[in-house]
Amino acid sequence: MSEAKVGSVVEAKTPRETPDDGVGRKRTNVDRTDEAFHGALGRPEQSSAKPSHPSGFQRTTSAIRTLLPLVQKVLPLLDGNIALVAANLLAPRLQAPVDLRPVEAGLAKLHAELSELHNKNAEHDAAFKRIGAEIETVKEALERSALEQKELAHEVSRTRARMTVFSVVGVIVLIASLAVDVVLLLRVQQVLH
To answer: Is 34 within a domain?
Structure first.
């Protein structure tokens, strides 16, 4: 017998008496217990005409609704992707729609920073090109200076060779001059004596 029928049977057997009588109080307690039972289940009271159990089709659809998310998570096993299945099973399920505004704001900020970084990169490229041009200029100046120093060293070595020849000739002329002077001095002394 359902509880609704039990409550109606209790009402039918209990005569209407004054509130002081204990039987009336029991009827009220039975009604409250019945309301508490249905309130705890969270379902409205069902009449005796409707069945209290869901049909087989309703049970099947509720089971399919319950198993469908699990089947969706396990489907990658057919492709052999065990890692994705593990990630699907371990990942928390999103219950509410995700608010993408913070992500979009972060992306906009990242885009602004990226364009600023691109501008700085372009400035640095221009600075590196200027530095490269200056280095090329310095390199050319150093090469010219090295050539000039090489030519100067060659000139110095030629001048040194000439000076050495000139010095040797000068010393020989000086020695010859001294020899001539000594010979002349000896002749003059011989003539005078």
So the answer is: yes
